[in-house]
Amino acid sequence: MPDLATNYLGLALKNPLVPSSTPLSHNLDPVLHLEDAGAAAIVMHSLFEEDVRNDELMIDRFLVNPDSFGEAAGHVPFGHDYQSKLDGYLEQIQILKSRLAIPVVASLNGSSLTGWVELGKEMQEAGADALELNAWFMPGDPKVSGEALEDHYLALLRELKQVVSIPVSMKLSPFFSSLPHFVRNVEAAGAAGVSLFNRFFQPDIDLDTLSVVDRVHLSSSADVLLTMRWIAILRGRTGLSLAATGGVHTARDALKMLLAGADVVHMASALLLNGPQALKDVLAGIESWMETHEYESVTQLKGSMSQQNLPDPSAFARAAYLHALDSFTPPAGVRY
Amino acid sequence: MNKMLTIDGNEAVASVAFRVSEVIAIYPITPSSGMGELSDEWAAQGKTNIWGSVPKVVELQSEGGAAGTVHGALQAGALATTFTASQGLLLMIPNMYKIAGELTPTVFHVAARAIATHALSIFGDHSDVMSTRATGFALLSSNSVQEAHDMAVIATAATLAGRIPVLHFFDGFRTSHEVAKIVAVDDEILAKMLPAELIGAHRTRSLSPEHPVLRGTSQNPDVFFQAREAQNPWFDAFPGIVQQCMDDFGKLTGRNYKLFDYVGAPDAERVIILMGSGAETVQETIEHMNRLGERVGLLKVRLFRPWAPGALLAALPATTRSIAVLDRCKEPGAEGEPLYKDVLVALAEDLSNESPRFAALPKVIGGRYGLGSKEFNPAMVLAVFEALTATALKRRFTVGINDDLTGLSLPFDPAFRTAAAHDTFAAVFYGLGSDGTVSANKNSIKIIGDETDLYAQGYFVYDSKKSGAMTVSHLRFGPSPIRSAYLTGAGDAKFIACHQPLFLETHDLLVHAAPGAVFLLNTEVPADRVWAALPPAMQRQMVEKRIEFYVIDAYQVALEADMGRRINTVMQTCFFAISGILPQEDAIAAIKHAVEKTYGRKGRRIAELNYRAIDKTLACLSKVEVPATADSAATQAITSPQVTEFVRKMTLPLIAGKGDALPVSLFPADGTWPTGTAKYEKRNLALQIPVLETDLCTQCGKCVFVCPHSAIRAKAFPAELAEAAPPTFKTMKIRSKDYPADWKMSYQVAPEDCTGCTLCVEVCPIRDKSNVSRKALNMAEQPPLRAPEAENWDFFLKLPDYDRKIAKRNTIPGSMLMQPLFEFSGACVGCGETPYIRLATQLFGDRMLVANATGCSSIYGGNLPTTPYTTNAEGRGPAWSNSLFEDNAEFGLGMRLATDKLADAARTQLHGMALEVGDTLVEALLTADQSSEAGIHEQRERVAQLQAKLSHLATPAAEQLSAIAEYLIRRSVWIIGGDGWAYDIGFGGLDHVLSSGEDVNILVLDTEVYSNTGGQNSKATPRGAVAKFAAGGQPNRKKDLARIAMDYENVFVAKVAYGAKDTHTLKAFLDAESYPGVSIIIAYSPCIAHGVDMSHNHRQQDLAVKSGHWPLLRYDPRLRDQGKHPMSVDSAAPSIPFREFARNEARFTVLERQNPEAAERFMVQAESDARLRHQEYLELAEMALPEAEIAKQAEEASAPQETPNA
Q1: With an 8 Å Cβ cutoff, is A335 touching chain B?
Q2: CA distance linking residue B1088 with residue A65, whole number of Å
Q3: What's CA A24's distance to the chain center, in Å?
Q4: Do the Cβ atoms of B30 and A70 come within 8 Å?
Q5: Mind giving me the DSSP string for B772-786?
Q6: What is the pLDDT of residues A190-199, one digit of tens each?
Q7: For residues B1175 and B1184, what is the distance between their CA atoms, to the nearest angstrom?
Q8: Which secondary structure element, helix H or strand E, spans residue B1128, and what is its range?
Q9: Cα distance between residue B817 and residue B450, in whole Å
Q10: Cα–Cα dist A222/A228, whole Å
Q11: How far is B1015 from chain A (nearest CA, A)?
Q12: Is the ipTM of this complex over 0.90?
């Protein structure tokens, strides 16, 4: 039996499989099933800044200070057991913590510098073992430079670190012009890890209504490669924990991430599609592959194929890109 | 130490009633609804009564139903209660006779309110209570919030001990809605007051199959009378029992009451006798007068029935020489009001005793005061005492008004003040119904009540509008209990706050300010420039009164504190910071503590934001030095509309808030008012208004169609008329080929009437091809547009309306050229109801009779000072009336029957006068086709010809016919109301009218709750929604009124949602009106009670239809005759999950956060409801076969003769 233990954000985990932020953690039962299936920790669904804000607006607009006139002091009854989204989230942390043996990572998703990251403090107080900061900001203003944008992310991180003592991982997008540089700054700003990469909700245009609509796109194994390359590049160049997320559906996907250097491998789409069994299968697959290939431990395997450890470091860099392009030849009969 | 509570009268009563009841039957009616709402909420939270069980709270379909349920619950042995007022109490009367006749203990708690007569009034007087005098219920009065709390206990104890049911009443609004600091009665005292053996005795008397009895017999002449007299001993004993309970209560609490409580000089010569909150004002006044050396007194009547004259006489000082009895009700045609007559009889009978208490009969006069919450203040009390010293006694009088018609009113000196006016700290706040001013003030009262030894009082006055209702909060604080049951007087307030700069223009904000008072203004004008921006009159007052002036830009502070446009905390902080009522540091700590209490579990982050706003406020509040002289350059908007004499004398003063000063002689004696007055209220509510882009507009008319306030309109007119237009008036070349090619089209906004809801912009389908954010209509700041657009609007109004005879009224653009005869209502911003009414008036308004059920539509339709119903250029328009809540369908039916009857009579008489009138005209009049606008127009012309001829004839027969000739023109009778009426209280009548076959059009504005009374659950409330009276979520499927109506095969039925499919709505209205029988349109009407911003009104309608929550359909019985299916389902099968519709509305999401399991269960059920219903409708549509086919099938089925039960 290979030793699957790994270390992530300073937390000792029994294996490297961690369900990432999905709606599954809204309820206790699916999370218990995930733990039973072998999950080593759980990243909760995100508490969205916008959700907290809309909730405040709704509470205030319709419940605390509703429109009133002579005959009506308000219209919707506002019971004492009403719970805000924030408080519901905090309670969910407590519930998960009280029933799970594995660590619970709470997740904050937002972008503005208006003090909302301070909510991390409440998450810590509610018992979260670590925090994932999913700072997602779409730059649209031409006056905002890449550097300013990075500073914004770092400012958010610093703001959060000022109020919490538990480890913080930052979930990043793949769109930084110099990711390793930025990751170094993230480390300097006090993060304990990075998670690569967050999955954007990509808005779509509805041609019938000429309106912009949100659609959820689940990942596939094909998405693994983007993350895997960057994990491989970062491994050894940063002291941060590395979490690989995006596209892990099979044990083979997970193994690639580990070989590239991930400390943990996140799963989301596969769990949404196939339930906790997907995690169980991946875990079994990893174990069996390691046995077959005579690996003793995840520690031994982790990062063994990072860019630094490769005989040809350019394999993850630009040279490989040229090769990949050349390898593609048009099908016969297709005129270009 | 006694627990102090700072609560309103309704809560004070409900807190007792809930704890001493097992069954509570409720139904909403202002101002008593709060008691039912709290009971329902407490039950939903699992709170228990003093015996450890959660009372069963059940909502009924009417007050009649509630009383019946209470009767049944009592008979089955439970302790049961109900709450009501006004018409609701009238509906309970039949059961009250039964309950009292059976000597059944119960307490009905009544927030006493005027009964509708010449007009409805939601405000307080005793006319409802007085209507129950003969029922056998004891009538027990409370005069203040504290007393209402205490009397609720005493009433319950007395009824159990004496078996006489008690109607416990307190003044609607003045007591029910006044927030005051009171001492709470705890459970222990309640338990001591309600001994187990008495409850046991009540159970023993109950109906039980274990020891069965018969009750509710019918009795014959031989015994009924004696049996009626058999209960006399109980009534004789009851006053003693009530006094005993009062004494017991006094021992337990230290608060002592008497059946008749005398206060004042022990040797008083002049005494006022009355009951209700007015007694507090009288007490304050006599204390003041006696300190000045007068000898006056007050007798408070607590137990009015059973009448205890002995106790009354014993309570009066033997020195009494003259008595004024004040009644808060009117008994037209009687020789005096009830209390007056009872007092007189008591005195007269006393005189005939062997040893009378009074050697000579004191002089007694009787007067009316305070009807419909008319102000009753110390100046009026003084006037009554003065009337008692007059040489010529005025036996009958009124006080508080200027009766220049019958001369009954007493003059009073408005400048008179008691010492209390100086001893208390009074503050007045002006805000909007939507800006949180009232809730912040309630909060301030609680803070001061809870955190200090001061007594506190709060009373809140709203204007009659729903959108942009102005609220005036009157707060008082003082070291001793506050008895001032009247508004802050002129010059009495030490603090005035204006939360909305909008009011600077329209109101005299400093009228209440005392010399040296603090005035706080929320304004975006910086402190160094604000003085110059004030109106001249205000500047003058500030100089004269030496006002201390503070300003804050509350919206900016709120924005910076991440609180959006929520300014309540900011303004509240200012109040505490500068009013000096508490040391600033303590005050700020107290506000923060209150914030924590308010939000607690509900949102700690909001609490944090509030703390931040509080700190920021203190930094941003500025004091402005008031110069020694007024020098304003500001000019006030001048509007001098061309108005009638009536409007000038009545309507304009009413709009200006000066109604109290209007004398009796000006008033129409029968409640009849002119229409077309809403246009005189230029409320300028909108921050932004829509602006048209003529290069993009396709003239589709949708903006006009959706406007809830008829503030955007379309006209088509010959190009030359535009030549005289103001410079910024916009016209477009007409696009449709239906009009002459050289005509122009104009879409114009009424800038001062628009409420800024944005629905027109939202519905506008036309976008700039290269910039989708630019539509054909876009919102822009109102202030710079106000003057030019007002000029444009005036010009627009003068353009001729498009000819109704040729308007393409079956298209949206065509129908929207027709003049709305319903405009600028006070409905909520973005109201989902009013577009339907406006549409009906556009299509049929010039021949419409409207019967309107009580509810939102009767309030924005007919609440003074103005009405949105108006007339066209010929002076025609809807004639509107409101009968009651419960009888609207019948009321409308009566209108139809009368119309048809008189039309019949006119036809008969016309026949009889064929010789004089001329055969051709008679024939044409009798056979006129009035199915089109052109046909109606021609008939109108014929009737005019007829009238001309008749006036020449001048015979009695001609005069008779002339009086009814107008009935020959087809009339459209509309029965309009909400779901509370149609689904619940008025359903019996509605159902009957549905079956009548008469040509009426019923419009049900379905908001899925009782909107007007504050969002209570009705049978239209959908499954899973939270509403008041359904705080735990409505568990049942919404009643399907359309299906019920379709069950009558000859009823036209439509279910519409204009925001989802406007053409469908238009078609349904046209078809319904043309159908020569009963038509019912059930119209989906989003409402603020849904907990969604009304700018999303259309989206929610669309989602309601797409999710299957609101299927669109029409059922037209005429189609059957044409061999077609009468029913058509006009919306597709549910294409989105129900929860996608529900998740945007707080009424659904609240449950998700309070009870997630139930919420989830309801969502799943609701989704299957929607699918099933759609399927059922489809099946119905399939099943409906042509009559011939049905007959054929019936024949086939009857062919084989089967033996029954073979």
Answers
A1: no
A2: 13
A3: 14
A4: yes
A5: EEEESEEEEESHHHH
A6: 999 999 998 7
A7: 14
A8: strand B1127-1129
A9: 59
A10: 11
A11: 5
A12: no
CB B900 within 8 A of CB B1076: no
Chain A residues within an 8 Å CB radius of B34: 73
Annotated active-site positions of B, please?
Answer: 30, 63, 113, 1012
Q: Which of B52, B42, B45, B34 is nearest to B18 (CA)?
A: B42
Q: Which of B13, B173, B7, B33 is nearest to B1011 (CA)?
A: B33
Contact assessment for residue B301 and residue B278, using Cβ atoms and an 8 Å cutoff: no
| CA of residue A333 relative to chain centroid, distance | 43
The region that residue A291 occupies, defined by phi over 0 for left and psi between -120 and 50 for alpha, beta otherwise, is alpha
Is B276 within 8 Å of B168 (Cβ atoms)? no
Element of type H or E holding B590: helix B584-599
Residue B18 zone, left/alpha/beta (φ > 0; ψ -120 to 50; rest): alpha
Among B7, B1150, B1160, the strongest candidate for a mutation testing the A interface, having the largest count of A CBs within 10 A, is: B1150
Interface of B with A in 851-910 (CB under 8 A): 859
Cβ(A13)–Cβ(A241) below 8 Å: no
Q: Is B466 close to A69, i.e. CB distance below 8 A?
A: yes
Percentage of chain B exceeding pLDDT 90: 87
Test B439 with A56 for CB contact under 8 angstroms: no
Q: What is the 3-state secondary structure (H, E, C) of B339-383?
A: HHHHHHHHHHHHHCCCCCCCCCCCEEEEEEECHHHCCCCHHHHHH
Taking only the tens place, the pLDDT of each residue in B157-173 is: 999 999 999 999 999 99
- Burial annotation B3-33 (CB, 10 A radius, 16+ → b, else e): eebbbbbbbbbbbbbbbbbbbbbbbbbbbbb
Residues written for chain B: 1206
Cα torsion A8, A12, A13, A18 to 10°: value is -30
In the block, tokens 């991430």 appear at A257
User: Rounded to whole angstroms, how far apart are CA atoms B557 and B620?
Assistant: 7
Task: Quote the tokens at residue A336.
Answer: 């270009």
Could you count the other beta carbons within 10 Å of the beta carbon of residue B1142? 27
Task: Indicate the Cα dihedral angle B765, B770, B772, B773, nearest 10°.
Answer: -120
pTM: 0.92
pLDDT at residue number B1110: 97
- Say how far apart CA B465 and CA B600 lie, in whole Å: 33
Mutate to test the interface with B, among A53, A60, A76, A113 (most CBs of B within 10 A): A76
Whether the CB-CB separation of A112 and A49 falls below 8 Å is answered with yes
pLDDT one-digit tens code per residue, B966-1023: 999 999 999 999 999 999 999 999 999 999 999 999 999 999 999 999 999 999 999 9
β-strand partners of B1054 = B1081, B1114
Name the DSSP class of B32.
T
Dist CA B1182 CA A178 (whole Å): 66
CA gyration radius, chain A: 22
Q: How many H-runs (helices) and E-runs (strands) does chain B carry? A: 46, 40
Q: Residue A140 burial by CB count (10 A; 0-12/13-18/19+): exposed, middle or buried?
A: exposed
Q: Is the Cβ pair B434, A67 closer than 8 Å?
A: yes
